[in-house]
Amino acid sequence: MATYTVQPKDTLYSIAKKFNISVDQLKQFNNLYDNNISIGQTLNVSSGGGYTPSYSDPVYPSNNPVYPNTDPVYPNNSTPNYGSYSSGGGSSYSGSGSGGSMASSISSFVVRKDNKGSYNSIVISYPSSYGTDTTGTMRDNYPSPNLVNPRGVSYFGKSTFDSQRYQFEDLLPKPFYADVLHFIGKNEGCFDAVNSYDKAIFSFGFIQFTGASASGSILSKVLQRMKQNNSDAFYNSFGKFGVDVSGYGAPVVSVRGASGDAAFTTVANDLQLTGVFIAAGFEREMIRAQIQIAQEEYMNKALSDATGIGIFGQQVPLNRILFSEGGIALRVDLAVNRGLSGSLAVLQKAVTQAASSQGIYSASGLGSIDERSVVQAVINNDVEQWKKDRTQKLLNSSFSFDKYYG
């Protein structure tokens, strides 16, 4: 029987991946009932029978393009007031001019802007656990049909799912759920991703949690959760720079005297405050808060037994139709990308089409539907190419579409 000694930063997932087995198998080999392991612990990594079952993560294409997020709908076609835009000259600046300790703290975020004519090329330097780090190059006056704020930027980030997975794996009930969120993050961004050019006002994180109240201000809930989990960590990442959140059921973010949408507009228009969020995207408590809210706001709702579609004259839970790995991934990805109600409309049409093509004419037969054909129907029905491409990547991944009757 092969064994392995646990090293610093090892998790059950990373060890299982190293030895091409599943986390459940690793637990079984070692009589483990939770995900807790300790450095120096010796683990059995095979059953001793000479057979190692195959296990692999979904394979994701590299160099994923950044797809535009769906704009939230604003009442009366209103949009935030971002003020005028000027590309300015090449410059470097630090210090917000707001006075007091905040100015001295925020001065550690240094913005370099190089004038490229119609836009500025931007790099932000920010404090990190290793001294000073820098963002990749981003730009303002972002070339998108969804552009609302010319001063805003789009940044995919560097705090990747792979590099941070050990920070949150214990939060997820199944390792496979991490694979689903990983796939979504490959399309949306890293834990430090920001987007401040469209109607969402300011979006942040691996699911691009939106700040705008018109889109639910899920970002406010992420900040609230981080503060609830660890108020000291929240202060060090946000509070000392003038960012706070209050309330519970409907948390409100405040920044330098502004609150709600105005607070997020302040962040969108201030690259140093944008840098504050980027730096926070590497912090354990922020990463964990993002995962927790992603579960609660998207995954749990999409996978609830109460979530279903109307077909054949009755409401049928999606858990009875799409329950393979690929089917579950599709449901969660659509909920993130198009909202829960929007995802259900898409799935109702696709399931109806797939059922008809397979000669299924009753709700009782939907459990045997070919789930790949449902995904293909979603692709065929979409008009926008970026949506087609995103769902095609799911179809091409190594998510299994085999039915699991557990």
General description of the model:
Strand 15 and strand 16 form a beta hairpin. Residues 49-80 and 93-104 have low confidence and may be disordered. The chain has helices at residues 12-18, 23-30, 100-106, 161-164, 175-188, 218-229, 231-237, 261-268, 271-280, 284-302, 325-338, 340-357, 371-381, 385-396; strands at residues 3-5, 42-44, 91-93, 110-115, 120-128, 131-134, 138-139, 154-155, 194-195, 203-204, 209-210, 243-246, 252-255, 258-259, 308-311, 314-317. It folds into 3 domains: 3-44, Roll (Membrane-bound Lytic Murein Transglycosylase D, Chain A), CATH 3.10.350.10; 75-283, no CATH class; 303-396, no CATH class. It is globular. By secondary structure, the protein is an alpha+beta fold. Strands 3, 4, 5, 6 and 7 form a 5-stranded antiparallel β-sheet that branches. A 4-stranded antiparallel β-sheet has the order 8-9-10-11. The protein has a 3-stranded antiparallel β-sheet with strand order 12-13-14, covered by helices on one side.
Mean pLDDT: 84
- Show unreliable segments: 49-80, 93-104
Helix/strand class: alpha+beta
Quantity of strands, as a count: 16
Q: How large is the radius of gyration?
A: 23 Å
Bulk shape: globular
Structurally, the number of domains stands at 3
Largest sheet: 5 strands, antiparallel
Helix content: 25-40%
Output the number of helix runs: 14
Give the amount of beta strand, in percent: 5-15%
